[in-house]
Amino acid sequence: MARKWSYLVSSVIVVALSRDELDAELGAQLDAMCAALHKEPFDPAPFEEVGERLVALGYVNEPGLRRTVDVLGKGLLALEEFSATEQHTVHVVGGIGALACGFVSARARAILDQQESMQRSLLKAAHDAQRDQRQSEAKFAGLASSSTNGILIVGLDGRVAWGNDAIGDILGHQPEPGTRLAELVAPQSIVVFRELMERVLAERDEFQRERMQLVRGDGEFSRVTLTASLLRDDDGKPSHVLAMIDDDTELALLQGELRRQSLHDVLTGLPNRQFFTTHLETVLRRADPEFGVTVFHLDLDAFGLVCNSLGGRVGDQLLQHVARRLRAVMSREQAMVARFDGDEFGIIVENTATTPDIATTMASINADLAEPIFVDDHGLAVSVSAGVVDRPSPDVDPTELLRMADLALRQAKKDQRGQWQLFHGNQDMERRRDHALAVVMPGAWEQGDIGVCYQPVRVLATGELAGVEAVLHWDLSDRCAELADQTGLILPMGEWLMRITAGQAQWWRQRGELDAQFGIRLTHHQSTDADLVSRVAKVVEETGMPHERLTLCMPVGVLGVADAAENLSTLAARGVRIALEDFGLGPRDLAWLSELPIASVCVPKDLTRRMDPRSVALIPAVHEVGVNICVDGIETAEQAAWWTQVGADLAIGAHFGSPLDAGDFLKEL
């Protein structure tokens, strides 16, 4: 790719390097860009430095920039290492934009340096002309005629005395001698122009420079940089003003286009996250105090299925369709629709008295997207899930506001599609507390603050001990396993729990103090762990605990995952008893009992407390397949009696004994 880049670039530019040296130089720059694309988070600065480096090599024309963008745009995206994810595509596009920005900035500096050097040369030539008129006039005429910058000699009365050909190109006509220079200045720049001329005539500095606009012959405006200085006669008295005019129109257009591209998504043309965040800050400040604003964070449901089955090109067309439909739906409101990353979009609505409520807006969006779009003869329709923040405080940080919307979106997508969830501050405070505890758990575990407790599993009918459940215990939280599951710590901690439990069970068994079934509940992460079987095998081998004395309880919700079902079957084949947690006693849950080797099921606490007869209608069917039923969370004698009457077999809960450490547990049996 570097050789191709060198060949194409060298065909339109001339640099002070041999072909081999240019190959090596561009190869080094390509390595720097590839290294930047691999880093997370992505930093476009190396791309910008490449653009500046190219200018330093003498790479100063637009054809060369176009060749560079073409080679890198196609070449980097074609590399296997960057074609695997859309995230790399976004990074490549952003990197090339940064390269172009670096190129434009460096080129602008180079042009400014050249202009300043030329201006000083012209000033020197003009001053020399005062000492040697004939020689200086010849030099000045040569420089002025060959310059691409407009040059005007203006009398002290402000009238044009002479202008070169370039000024005619800038203005679209050649100004006649005697024309007042102020007449060429656009109205919006007249104040700046007059202040500049006042400073020049006051001889505050050698020359003065200001950006302004001039009026073209066709009535349009030219963006220019005007540099003015005094010319003196043979007696050293001011005689004229030398005005040099640099045409900034093309540079301004290029910078404007690059700025637009940096703030908009390439695929859909929508504002990107950066533009959305900046706009959000402005909107929050000007929001109507009564109606406020509403922020939607949208995510396409099952978009991955479209891309995986029909390809990325179809996925891109679907994203473009969604962008158009979202803009159409929100066209009646004062709103901005943006594309964030992948299949995520954002909407900020400045509410008024006529703005529909959130439910109506979401219903309109999903109803509109439900109309199929045909791509390659495939009729596609999608739905969106959304997290919504309604009427936030005007003082909230935009980044924090987007975090709130994202949290609400994750909650909306939890086990469902096409739904929306409103952000609630209280839930966020609880979630933040949980996250804070989750991140300090490794230290607490290392210091011994997390231990193992045991609670009895009783036979409902007789109250006798049927088994023992081992649980993690931490004084700071009663959801220790759930928090560890969020960070992945549950994998090593869960293996440690099994080892401690199995060792304690063997100790009690060998001393003749307790010989019972020991159970451990697995989290979603543990149940789908590819190494679960090997972890259990290692613990059993190290402790000598019989397989048949160990019960592992999996959440019923993981059974649809292939790894979890395979783990369950393999462990059951080795003699480990398998139980299902959160068993809802519904037909879907019941179907698993006929397909998998399940020994028992555990009814969740919410069903236990409700004691709803409709929830237990299938208990006989569970017994028919040889599976016993354990109810979790029995807290009162009334609950125990009710579940005994409806046919449940086992129970866990405060009514039969709370979790205790190993020593206290034996005392309470």
From TrEMBL:
Q: What is the name of this protein?
A: EAL domain-containing protein
Q: Which organism is it from?
A: Lentzea roselyniae
Output the CDD domains linked to this UniProt entry. EAL, GGDEF, PAS
- In this chain the PAC domain maps to 208-260
Q: Which residues form the GGDEF domain?
A: 291-425
**What InterPro entries does this protein map onto?**
Biofilm_reg_signaling, EAL_dom, EAL_sf, GGDEF_dom, Nucleotide_cyclase, PAS, PAS-assoc_C, PAS-like_dom_sf
Read off the SMART domains from this record.
EAL, GGDEF
Q: Which residues form a coiled coil?
A: none
Describe the location of the EAL domain by residue ranges. Answer: 434-669
Which superkingdom heads the taxonomic lineage of this protein's source?
Answer: Bacteria
Please state every residue range assigned to the domain named PAS. 136-176
Q: Which SUPFAM superfamilies match?
A: EAL domain-like, Nucleotide cyclase, PYP-like sensor domain (PAS domain)
